[in-house]
Amino acid sequence: MIYEKEKRYIIPFTDVPSSRAEMPEISVDERRGNFTEVETGFPEAVAVQEAKRCLSCRRCLGCGLCLAEDNEDSIDFNIPGEELNLEFDEVIITKGQDNAFHPIKPELGFDVYADVITDLQFERMLSPNGPTGGLVVSPLNGEIPGRIAIVQGSSNEEDEKHLFSSLVLGVNESILALDKTQDLEVALISPVCQSFKEKFSSDAEQISSLGIIEGIPESVERKGEEGPLSLTYSTGGQNKTEDFDLLVVLTKEKISPEIMELSRKLDQEIQ
């Protein structure tokens, strides 16, 4: 017999195999002053078990659409689980959603200064659905920055593919930030690969209030307790120091060993 509970029709099965798993979360102290994801996600074993639990609980909403299309014997809730071997013409391996990245140069102050954030955190800030509703603000004091530096965080300058994609991301995030913030200046400081120069340099140079500096970020220090960030970078064989209100670090994503192993087994490039 279907019964109503909280304005939803529920089929009262009593043999649900297990209770819902609790989503792990970081502590309240770990959430302060940053944009770290609160929910850390299930470990693989728990995720698989939770999927099996959801697929076996059989609690439909009781909308009756299936009965409207056919009779009550058209659905068999007692079909056992099974594994299927499927054939495909092509397999595409993606990088996954771990949001992990290679270590950032410690001299850049990430995890030391609240107003040094990653490109992913900046992307969330720029989103209308993000923690600031799309408003560009400093996590240190909530003020709107006047100058932002977007810098390369990886120490490996030889990775052409990474440099190209991170430069494109840096330009795109700069455009969004400039569009949302009045009187903002953005400096994109990074080694510039040849492929970016050929495809996008001329267009990027036309973006008002965006300066692309071919250089290597070296270190970041705070001027005073709540003063600006002092960024030192090398360019053209010289070291220069400039002050910024917010520093965004371009990260190099880190692909999980499981994805790398799958790519090797299938002899398939990761997209």
Ends: how far apart?
A: 49 Å
Structural class: alpha/beta
- Gyration radius, rounded: 25 Å
Second rung of CATH, namely the architecture of the largest domain = 3-Layer(bba) Sandwich
CATH fold descriptor of the largest domain: FAD/NAD(P)-binding domain
**Can you give the mean pLDDT?**
83
Low-confidence stretches: 1-9
Helicity level, as a percent range? 25-40%
Number of helices: 8
| Main sheet record | 5 strands, parallel
Strand content: 15-25%
- State the domain count: 2
Would you count the extended β strands for me?
10
CATH homologous superfamily of the largest domain?
FAD/NAD(P)-binding domain
Task: Report the CATH C-level class of the largest domain.
Answer: Alpha Beta
Order of helices and strands: EEHHHEHEHEHHEEEEEH
Strand order of the largest sheet: 3-10-4-5-6
Shape: elongated
Structural commentary:
This protein is an alpha/beta fold and 271 residues long. 27% of the residues lie in helices and 19% in strands. The strands form 3 sheets. It has a 5-stranded parallel sheet with strand order 3-10-4-5-6. Strands 7-8-9 form a 3-stranded antiparallel sheet, with no helix packed on it. Helix 4 runs parallel beside helix 5. The longest helix has 21 residues. The N terminus is likely disordered.
Per-chain topology:
Blueprint: E1 3-5, E2 8-10, H1 28-31, H2 44-57, H3 65-69, E3 116-118, H4 119-126, E4 147-152, H5 160-180, E5 185-190, H6 194-199, H7 201-204, E6 210-214, E7 216-222, E8 229-235, E9 238-244, E10 246-250, H8 257-266
Parallel strand pairs: 3-10, 4-5, 4-10, 5-6
Antiparallel strand pairs: 1-2, 7-8, 8-9
Helix pairs in contact: 4-5
